[in-house]
Write a sequence for this structure.
């Protein structure tokens, strides 16, 4: 008997991998397979071809390459191997089932609208072929598909969702790394990883490499450092982009290299160990709440799948977004003339990452100052973030634009200068990413256009925030439900 474990790209680890653990319980030869498809499509129940409108972005492709290399090495150390193939998932799975007489197939659920349809289609297809299909969840803490409030409706605020979920559900405990993964006797061809061409041709990724070690071990080390030195001050430090106060675990979570259940239980254990230290346990709880935001993002994407492409709130259907290529380019390149916005966009381009506080500032600037559709911003993030995640990205953008679930009230419009003064008071973050402002004196670092005595190679603001704010207030306030 041969069984097959299908890695789907968000589960790239061997520790606490439920599908893998179920598979090896059978003690039968196992083929470990990853399929890469550049033109991803699946079919719906009427046989219509559906393409993935959120195919993996460029920065994420780079990460995926490193994560697959790492997984391949780990699997070989455990007596198995990662077989890589390129093409349509259903076709390749069918080929494997037929050639290698696969009896059972194991894989993880994915929650994005496209992968949800793919899961259903492939499951139906394989069952029809007589294969036993085992689907597990290794990427979320909670069964987001079934959580409802007392009236049987979907929770519409984070606080009510997480209060209910945290108090009523116990996330699964972690499963160990198997000591050995039995390999099948078949000689199976594997496409060389390089042939997937995941790494960009342009020289773009040095900064990614300097910022991250994109392996399972790299993620575990980051977690250890976070638990030992950062969690105790997380609630304050996480707001300041120049401080090293966050975990930076988001890409590892997205690709599944570090288990969210493991992080959860590690932080919870510390919280309980230091329960008498109120400050410490509050910090730990705030971190757990952030993991809760990730769950909430998936919860919303699952129950309102259309929101990945359109605003959740109907009054935004005909919102007068403006098309302005030169504004969009200035934002993407970090050339808006507002230092905190530009520093964030340059950090993103250089490292594939951006601090959460700055994500909110740059997103607000795009939507509420430049009047550019949140989807244009979401797409740029999608292509340039190494942690690009459809659920969290959609939630983050719709929250900032005020058109999503539990979103910012319309009158809260980030002022890039005040935000900068508050969260980067000495301009350390700004100077790191905008070296051309090094000669600007500290009192002008947040508004360099006011310093008239020196000449700098940095643009003047592309618009006046105060005027843009008035326009945004008027437009957002005038919205009516359609
Ligand atoms: C406009 C915008 C776009 C975003 N796009 C993404 C994205 O594509 N991928 C992504 O993972 N996050 C996204 N976020 C959420 C958040 O910015 C990142 O999760 C966080 O910055 C990652 O850094 P960290 O791992 O150090 O977080 P930490 O502060 O250490 O938090 C720990 C973990 O909690 C989760 N988390 C924290 N904040 C949020 C949040 N607001 N929403 C959902 N989960 C959260 C993440 O999984 C994170 O790794 C976005 C936020 C905004 C405002």
């Amino acid at each position: 008997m041969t069984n097959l474990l299908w890695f789907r790209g968000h589960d790239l680890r061997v520790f606490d991998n439920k599908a893998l653990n179920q598979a090896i319980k059978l003690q039968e030869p196992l083929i470990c397979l990853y399929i890469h498809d550049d033109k991803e499509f699946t079919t719906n129940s009427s046989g219509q071809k559906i393409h993935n409108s959120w195919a993996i972005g460029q920065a994420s492709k780079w990460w995926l390459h490193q994560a697959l290399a790492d997984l391949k090495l780990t699997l070989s150390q455990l007596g198995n191997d990662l077989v890589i193939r390129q093409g349509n998932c259903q076709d390749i799975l069918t080929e494997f089932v037929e050639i290698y007489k696969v009896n059972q197939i194991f894989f993880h659920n994915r929650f994005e609208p496209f992968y949800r349809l793919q899961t259903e289609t492939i499951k139906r297809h394989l069952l029809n072929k007589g294969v036993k299909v085992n689907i597990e969840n290794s990427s979320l803490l909670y069964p987001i598909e079934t959580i409802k409030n007392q009236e049987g409706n979907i929770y519409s605020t984070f606080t009510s969702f997480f209060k209910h979920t945290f108090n009523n559900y116990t996330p699964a405990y972690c499963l160990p790394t198997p000591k050995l993964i039995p390999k099948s006797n078949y000689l199976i061809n594997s496409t060389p990883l390089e042939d997937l061409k995941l790494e960009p041709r342009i020289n773009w990724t040095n900064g990614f490499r300097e910022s991250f070690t994109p392996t399972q071990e790299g993620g575990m080390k980051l977690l250890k450092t976070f638990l030992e030195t950062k969690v105790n001050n997380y609630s304050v430090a996480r707001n300041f982009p120049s401080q090293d106060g966050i975990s930076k675990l988001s890409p590892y979570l997205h690709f599944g290299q570090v288990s969210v259940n493991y992080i959860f239980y590690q932080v919870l254990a510390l919280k309980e160990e230091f329960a008498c230290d109120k400050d410490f346990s509050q910090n730990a709880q705030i971190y757990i709440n952030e993991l809760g935001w990730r769950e909430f993002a998936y919860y919303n994407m699952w129950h309102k799948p259309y929101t990945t492409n359109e605003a959740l709130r109907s009054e935004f259907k005909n919102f007068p977004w403006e098309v302005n290529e030169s504004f969009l380019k200035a934002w993407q390149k970090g050339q808006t003339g507002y230092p905190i916005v530009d520093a964030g966009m340059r950090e993103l381009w250089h490292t594939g990452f951006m601090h959460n506080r700055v994500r909110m500032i740059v997103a607000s600037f795009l939507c509420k100052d430049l009047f550019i559709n949140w989807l244009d911003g979401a797409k740029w993030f999608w292509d340039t973030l190494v942690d690009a995640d459809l659920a969290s990205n959609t939630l983050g953008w719709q929250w900032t634009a005020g058109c999503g679930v539990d979103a910012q009230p319309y009158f809260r419009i980030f002022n890039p200068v005040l935000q900068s003064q508050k969260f980067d008071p000495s301009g350390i973050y700004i100077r790191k990413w905008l070296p051309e402002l090094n000669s600007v004196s500290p009192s002008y670092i947040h508004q360099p256009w006011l310093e008239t005595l020196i000449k700098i190679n940095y643009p003047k603001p592309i618009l006046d925030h105060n005027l843009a704010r008035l326009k945004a207030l008027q437009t957002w306030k005038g919205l009516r439900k359609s």
About this structure: Strands lie at 2-7, 30-36, 41-43, 49-51, 82-86, 102-108, 132-136. The mean pLDDT is 96. Residues 238, 246-250, 253-254, 290-291, 293-294, 297, 356, 359-360, 363, 381, 385, 387-389, 392-393, 395-397, 400 surround flavin-adenine dinucleotide (CB under 6 Å).
